[in-house]
């Protein structure tokens, strides 16, 4: 069987260790694995599928799963769940329900996480800037400008997150909206996009965030090329489970902070997100072995210990209990962060699954936000352009 996933070298190492454990217990099974950065993953996966050689086991994201289900590319896992080949008897129902497509499981959550701004603790100390426990978007901009002023001309407060669909979704949800409606249309207006682009335009002009050319380079290679890893920014938006991956690439200590809040009276923007799902190709010749491996990843005690919380906090109650005594300081920080956010009032469940075409919407945001950053489009024109492209991506 073939397994394809996105991630950094640390994830590859843990995944290969898990495969070796599975192969020792299932000596007639051989699994080969490949990994790449998230931004390159979807094109490579599409190429494999178009060539008639889809991987048997596919790491899947909630932003893309509906599209793959619509195309008939993923296996309905209901039979394996009913047979307890994939045992979900003690699984977090919030995670599980949030991963369903048309009421069925086409991928099993490998963990849950919240959105987070991670930051370079050493640079914050060097700048002698105090970080409040919470900040609004405007206050975040001020903090980042102060950091940039204190740290000199080549270090900025934050990466440019104008291209980041996750950050934009938080912004939208804080306004009481959703990225998408239940019938698969856009849940926001072009004016909402303009306010988003305008916010980051102001941060660029105040030197609070990195210049657009630096930002464009940062998203080309996944975690290793991010501005925080390169020492060019203090903050970057990511998902809480990636703290370990960032820390492994940095000599400075990494901290974790809630994303900015909306204005007074705004709603929670963050949500508990399935970090990744493990799906099975509908074309696989190895349904039994593939579904056994999925069940193994989430329930086998040895596999649980190896994978730990690198892909997010596990959904199984037994897995959480098993991991608790052995968590590192940074892993405990992630678990504490998840518990804190869940009680903060700054999160609310995501009720609407991203529709088919959501991946193309994400690419349209990257493309248009960069065009605005480089001055090729105005904020207003860019907002209208992105909105039109996003509607087209959804078939509107």
Automatic annotation (TrEMBL):
One of its GO terms (molecular function) is ATP binding. Keywords: ATP-binding, Nucleotide-binding. Transmembrane segments: none annotated. The keyword ATP-binding applies. Pfam families: SBP_bac_1. The keyword Metal-binding does not apply. This is ABC transporter ATP-binding protein. It comes from Reticulibacter mediterranei.
């Amino acid at each position: 069987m073939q397994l394809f996933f996105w991630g950094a070298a640390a994830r590859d190492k843990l995944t290969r260790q898990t495969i070796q454990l599975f192969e020792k217990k299932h000596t007639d099974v051989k699994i080969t694995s490949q990994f790449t950065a998230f931004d390159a993953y979807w094109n490579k996966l599409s190429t494999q599928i178009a060539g008639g050689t889809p991987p048997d086991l596919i790491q899947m994201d909630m932003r893309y799963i509906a599209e793959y289900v619509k195309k008939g590319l993923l296996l309905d896992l209901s039979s394996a769940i009913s047979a307890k080949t994939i045992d979900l008897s003690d699984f977090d129902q919030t995670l599980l329900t949030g991963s369903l497509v048309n009421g069925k499981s086409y991928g099993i959550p490998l963990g849950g996480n919240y959105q987070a701004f991670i930051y370079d603790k050493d640079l914050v100390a060097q700048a002698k800037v105090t970080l409040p426990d919470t900040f609004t978007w405007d206050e975040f901009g001020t903090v980042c400008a102060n950091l940039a002023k204190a740290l000199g001309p080549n270090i900025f407060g934050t990466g440019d997150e104008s291209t980041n669909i996750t950050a934009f979704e938080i912004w939208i949800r804080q306004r009481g909206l959703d990225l998408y409606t239940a019938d698969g249309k856009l849940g926001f207006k072009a004016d909402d996009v303009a306010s988003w682009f305008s916010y980051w335009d102001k941060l660029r002009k105040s030197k609070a965030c990195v210049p657009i050319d630096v930002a464009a380079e940062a998203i080309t290679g996944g975690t290793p090329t991010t501005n925080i890893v390169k020492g060019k920014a203090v903050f970057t938006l990511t998902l809480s489970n990636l703290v370990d991956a960032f820390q492994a690439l940095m000599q400075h200590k990494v901290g974790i902070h809630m994303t900015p809040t909306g204005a007074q009276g705004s709603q929670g923007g963050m949500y508990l997100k399935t970090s990744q799902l493990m799906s099975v190709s509908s074309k696989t010749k190895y349904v039994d072995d593939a579904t056994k491996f999925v069940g193994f990843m989430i329930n086998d005690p040895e596999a649980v210990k190896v994978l730990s919380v690198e892909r997010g906090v596990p959904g199984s109650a037994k897995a959480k209990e098993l991991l608790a005594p052995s968590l590192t300081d940074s892993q405990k920080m992630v678990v504490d962060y998840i518990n804190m956010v869940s009680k903060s009032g700054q999160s609310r469940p995501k009720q609407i699954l991203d529709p088919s075409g959501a991946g193309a919407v994400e690419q349209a945001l990257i493309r248009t936000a960069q065009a605005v950053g480089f001055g090729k489009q105005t904020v207003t024109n860019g907002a209208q352009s992105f909105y039109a492209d996003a509607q087209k991506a959804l078939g509107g």
